Amino acid sequence: MSKHIVIVGGGLAGTIVANGLCRQLGGEMRSGAIRITMIANTDKHMYQPGLLYVPFGKIREAELFRDQRKVLDRRVTFTIDPAKNIDVENNRVVCESGKTYNYDYVVIATGSRIRPENIKGMAEGAHWFYDLDGARKMRQALAEFTGGKIVVNVNAPHKCPVAPLEITFMLYDFLKAKGVMDKTEITYTYPIGRLHALEPVAHWAVPEFDKFGIKSETFFNTKEVDPKKKTITSEEGTTLPYDLLVTIPPHNGAQVILDSNLGAGGWVPTGRETLLRDGSTNVFVVGDTTNIPISKAGSTAHFEADTIVDNLTSLLQEGTWARNYDGKVFCFVETGMNTGTYVWFNYTTPPNPGPPSQMLHWFKLAYNRLYWLSARGLL
């Protein structure tokens, strides 16, 4: 009897897993010994990191999207039917249509979603760039902005942990080029007592902020936004006025994870080295969906997906485990409109950001263009 692998989620992580398995298990798929099904919510694949550039007019919206069917290996059975329940006790996924997919192995790649509505007044009073509609509105707000107080407000948890720093530096350069930075004050808020969750990154950011005169307010856990008064208030009792509020909204995992009782907040308890759901031997979790205390970033999803491909292939072909995930993350960091740096780290090696340079900015832009090759599992 053939083995069935079901992948729930059509984002970067799930797509890399599907395409990687097709390359590794081509012979078994031709013989019918293995089948792969992907269950997705949409027929479009979005390049999510590109949203960072939309507010500044640095990318065309059409560049963000491809047809998922064209990104996915043709041997994968692709269905658009949102998962309603992932039943790990009975090895099946039930979709909104009522159709049920039984599996031998499941890969949960359901990602994360922004939840500005979780904070009073945020949806009405703030701008963000974590979805296309928000990025469009922020682009319009920046076009109309002529100076004043900007608050860049960071909430947790959120994906792409360097994005708050990137948007802050890019705002500075954009407004300087527009000729209004001399009439503008930028204040950056963060929930803990430093500028970033990763201590070396936080230490690196301090002199960079000082260089540009960017203010900061740490221990700022957002309580509410008042769109009429144009203020944002923290649980700690600090209130900041703003003319433009740019927020990194809090994130949750997918609703199907909550509905399936697989993890609080939509995050699935996951072995940090095995990427198996705690207590399971045939349920892999990848990308933002895990509760592993490591960056929810595209490169994290990529390195985790590669690990799962190797392990699933080894289990199916040889009945043995291949390797553990070492926590590897690599992220380019925009430090303005024309400069960048990068961070690399894993479970045992902390990040060590280097001096920003124009060359690293161009490396990031080149890497952006290679995204679709990554999704196809070719990089």
E-strand count: 21
Assign the CATH class of the largest domain. Answer: Alpha Beta
Major β-sheet profile: 5 strands, parallel
Radius of gyration: 21 Å
Structural class: alpha/beta
**Distance separating the two termini:** 33 Å
- Strand order, biggest sheet? 5-2-1-9-19
DSSP strand (E) fraction? 15-25%
Q: pLDDT under 50 segments (min length 5)?
A: none
Form type: globular
Enter the CATH topology name of the largest domain.
Answer: FAD/NAD(P)-binding domain
How many alpha or pi helices? 11
User: Which architecture name of the largest domain does CATH use?
Assistant: 3-Layer(bba) Sandwich
pLDDT averaged over residues: 96
Number of domains: 2
What percent of residues adopt helix (DSSP H or I)? 25-40%
User: CATH H level of the largest domain: which superfamily?
Assistant: FAD/NAD(P)-binding domain
Structure commentary:
The chain has 379 residues and is of the alpha/beta class. The chain has two domains: 184 residues, FAD/NAD(P)-binding domain (3-Layer(bba) Sandwich); 123 residues, FAD/NAD(P)-binding domain (3-Layer(bba) Sandwich), CATH 3.50.50. 30% of the residues lie in helices and 25% in strands. The strands form seven sheets. A five-stranded parallel beta sheet has the order 5-2-1-9-19. The chain has a four-stranded parallel beta sheet with strand order 13-12-11-17, covered by helices on one side. Strands 6-7-8 form a three-stranded antiparallel beta sheet. Helix 1 packs parallel to helix 9. The longest helix is centred in the C-terminal third of the chain and has 21 residues. The mean pLDDT is 96.
